[in-house]
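lol forgot to send this yesterday, sorry. struct tokens for the thing we talked abt
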């Protein structure tokens, strides 16, 4: 086991210990010393900061962007993008340094907008990305493939987003990387480069671990599982198949580049794959 993997496990154990101490203090009526409750939380924060610093140092080891095909077809819009900032999602954790989020928008304004109050949540069928086919960006071998987690309602309102950030995301972080990314596929592209697709639709996988796939082959369908605000595609390249130890690798999509946040792009004709 690598030192980083061990640190990630210790990080989660510290948070779980903190929660256990808080919960245990309620029914007993006997106050647990305040300092004792804070020890595991402080340790978790310290470990998180140290892991983040290592990620920043790793960026100094420059690696050229890897050119691959786009994981979707049709018209999409980029949200969190490494074209705007690095790390694109505010963290180097889980290999997300150069990750990108994209949403399907067949025409401008063609998806439900963010609302501050109402509706609090929307069904996934309201979003054109839901069920869209996702394709292999290169010839590859499937390393991981999982699609057993549910697709939850959207979190694209003020109250729902607050719940996601303050409660749901923290619980998923303690549970592990697979709870963050939800249903997902990881491909081995060769040369120490791996591609990850997150938030897939439940039960939509067309491939399994060990399968060999060709560029453009349908892998699964877009969903809203894991730490997701709405049906969208989270895509990233990384140097290891284990999200706990992976470091991000820059990418560029052939013929497109790296779209910036808010930028629309179109990839050929939509792939026809019934779902």
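and heres what i got for the seq, position by position
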């Amino acid at each position: 086991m690598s030192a980083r993997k061990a640190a990630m496990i210790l990080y989660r154990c510290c948070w779980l210990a903190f929660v256990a101490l808080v919960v245990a203090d309620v029914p007993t009526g006997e106050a647990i010393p305040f300092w004792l409750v804070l020890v595991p939380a402080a340790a978790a924060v310290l470990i998180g900061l140290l892991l983040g610093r290592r990620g920043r140092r790793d960026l100094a080891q420059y690696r050229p962007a890897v050119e691959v095909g786009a994981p979707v077809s049709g018209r999409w819009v980029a949200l969190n993008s490494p074209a705007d900032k690095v790390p694109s999602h505010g963290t180097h954790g889980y290999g997300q340094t150069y990750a990108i989020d994209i949403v399907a928008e067949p025409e401008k304004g063609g998806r439900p907008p963010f609302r501050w109050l109402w509706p609090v949540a929307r069904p996934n069928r309201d979003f054109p990305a839901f069920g869209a086919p996702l394709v292999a960006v290169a010839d590859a071998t499937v390393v991981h493939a999982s699609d057993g987690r549910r697709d939850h309602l959207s979190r694209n309102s003020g109250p729902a987003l607050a719940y996601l950030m303050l409660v749901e995301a923290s619980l998923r972080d303690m549970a592990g990387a697979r709870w963050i990314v939800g249903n997902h596929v990881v491909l081995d592209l060769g040369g120490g480069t791996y591609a990850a697709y997150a938030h897939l639709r439940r039960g939509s996988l067309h491939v399994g671990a060990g399968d060999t796939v060709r560029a453009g082959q349908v892998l699964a369908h877009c969903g809203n599982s894991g730490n997701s605000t709405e049906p969208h595609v989270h895509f990233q390249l990384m140097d290891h198949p284990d999200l706990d130890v992976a470091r991000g690798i820059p990418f560029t999509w052939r013929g497109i580049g790296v779209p910036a946040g808010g930028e629309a792009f179109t990839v050929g004709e939509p792939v026809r794959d019934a779902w």
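The longest strand covers residues 140-146. anyway ping me if u want another try
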